[in-house]
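To the team - magnesium ion complex, inputs and output below.
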Amino acid sequence: MVDRTILHIDMDAFFASVEQRDRPELLNRAVAVVGAGRRTVLVSPSYEARAFGVKTGMTKPQARALCPEIIYITAHAEKYTATCSEIIKILYDFTPDIEVFSIDEFFLDITTTMHLFGSARDIATNIRKKIKQGLSLTCSVGISYNKLLAKFSSKRAKPDGISMLKREEVSAVLDELEPDQLCGIGQKTKQTLREMGIYNLGQLRNCKISLLRKKFGINATNLHLMAKGIDEDPVSTAEEEEDAKTIGHSMTLDHDITQVSEIQKHLLLLSDKVCRRLRASQLSAGCVKLTIRYRDFTTFTKQKSMLSATNDTKQIYKVAIAILKTIRLKQPLRLIGIGTSKLTAQGSPNFLFEETERAYRLNKLLDDVNERFGDETVSFASLLTEDNPETVISPAWRPYGTRRYK
Ligand SMILES: [Mg+2]
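Output:
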């Protein structure tokens, strides 16, 4: 398996920096953005204030005691959200796979786009440059092969830097650290671990999972994996997070594709994924939307409504193909997506037609198998054969033992 390359972008003292940027008289001063209420706490102290020991979450008197000259500024939420949108625009120049983790933190999966820009470090440098030039703000970037470690690395890069953590360095770096240095391990967990005699991540990593299970139950496995620096969680893009009114799936391609036959194969896989999700939610879709993104990142969508709603892979696939036929492809594709909308409750299947019944039973069987043995255990036969490019769909379903597509 190829390692992913994940960036975690974390804006430096975001709210305070936006205020300092917009009000030059605040530059190089100890300032803190606070909420509107009288009993508010500090939401974002500037680095100048932090130098006095001022921290996020302190009350105003607490911070004033540490730093008498501190200037309080009431938060301007719209300004921060607008700036956040500007940042996202910049990030989209480098990958479509962006997870907005919070208003000032972003995960980027650059595995498939890295080669276009040089290296991960080149991308990090370019992003920092663009944000600095375009928005007069600094950020820190962590680079690693999963979200957990990318986020851990950006903290080490702060402020205004880049930090990279490679697989071979992980145990050396993590082992001596206290467990709460990882995002997701809090004070309470740290305390419980201490009571077990576990003071650092190395000890946690080497602890028997059965012992952890006694204290942490189902969270034990995750804790153990975290101490090893393992995190399989994907960067989940906004598209995937859209509400239940649409269900869709898109994939960034390993390489840009031009062959219609290859596009068809991907559409089949995507139809299958989307329909499985529809069926799992007992929904049918009345509209199919095809999304394609060209090599130069321009994106194009086109949709088509159906006479009756369905969650059958074959039906959705056919509509996607029909849409594809109406598009004149201008450039090689780098991303393909299928979305479905006009969702309705699936209802009980109408077996008026033998074909409908057959499709329903097949889909159900496949869903069950895939659920029990993992995604893509069973897939369309035409996905497996390179030598039959014109096959629109194979009527033959057969078991498939290995994962070829993620
Ligand atoms: Mg931040």
